[in-house]
Design goal:
By secondary structure, this protein is mainly alpha-helical. It is built from 15 helices and no strands.
Length: about 270
């Protein structure tokens, strides 16, 4: 009985989770009038929204830009967050202050940082570039990664590191050779979360990238909004192009993501 109820609940949850994607696929096969009529199924299937979406905006280039920015930002976040999480977990009261300061900074609305970040990027010639977007997103996601990794570092017994120090390892070497291999599940989970955050980011992308050569898919989706009409069918097709690769990645990495976050929840 319990198994049947559990299957029913999981089935209902799956329907609720996939319904928006199914409806999005339906919208991508409709004309403007058909979209406004509502309903789940198109009155007449139209495939022209798909090639038209790629002609309206350079979707292929924007998809590449989104992945380059997300991967670059994730790598940068990991390089900074691992030693920072080590400090917040091992430095006692000072580490707790640093941890609180990072989380407090992340709570501020991102819009307040747009203007100073723009002038900083302009000063180093990184406006309107995927490198600049990766740099900004990578730094912006450091507090999240540190918050996720802090629990993993705390789970590593300090006695293991102390034994390594007695054998002659430095603190940096102990972090690299002792702590880092033990927190790999947490690092994978934190990296996936930061990847999704960077991939979905819109504010920095629309503020710092004005040309199609540097714009990401989130910006491209907003370009289907015309002065008088909205190309819902084309926008739906472009949305599917944006989310399907990430859905595939999430499904493939769900075990690592859920397992890593579950392990880090215990401190």
């Amino acid at each position: 009985m319990r198994a049947a109820v559990a299957r029913g609940v999981l089935g209902l949850a799956a329907v609720v989770a996939t319904a928006p994607v199914v409806f999005l696929a339906s919208l991508s096969l409709r004309g403007v009038d058909d979209v406004q009529n509502g309903g789940w199924l198109p009155e007449r299937v139209r495939w022209d929204n798909w090639p038209a979406a790629f002609q309206t905006v350079p979707l292929a280039q924007m998809l590449v830009n989104s992945w380059v920015v997300a991967i670059g930002a994730t790598v940068l976040t990991a390089l900074i967050a691992v030693p920072t999480a080590y400090v917040t977990a091992r430095a006692g009261r000072s580490g707790k202050r640093l941890h609180s300061a990072l989380l407090a900074a992340y709570c501020a609305p991102p819009i307040v940082a747009v203007l100073p970040l723009y002038f900083l990027l302009k000063a180093v010639g990184l406006t309107n570039s995927v490198v600049g977007l990766a740099l900004v997103n990578g730094l912006a996601n450091v507090p999240v990664a540190v918050w996720l990794l802090d629990g993993f570092v705390r789970r590593v017994p300090a006695e293991v590191e102390e034994a390594a120090w007695v054998d002659g390892l430095s603190v940096a070497a102990g972090l690299r050779r002792i702590v880092l291999p033990l927190i790999v599940p947490g690092l994978v989970a934190a990296s996936l979360v930061c990847f999704f955050l960077s991939y979905n980011e819109f504010l920095f992308a629309v503020s710092f990238a004005q040309s199609p050569s540097a714009q990401t898919l989130t910006v491209g989706l907003s370009l289907f909004q015309g002065d008088r009409t909205v190309q819902f069918g084309q926008q739906a097709a472009a949305s599917l192009v944006a989310i399907v690769p990430v859905y595939v990645l999430a499904v493939l990495a769900q075990r690592a993501l859920v397992g890593g976050l579950s392990q880090g929840a215990v401190r």
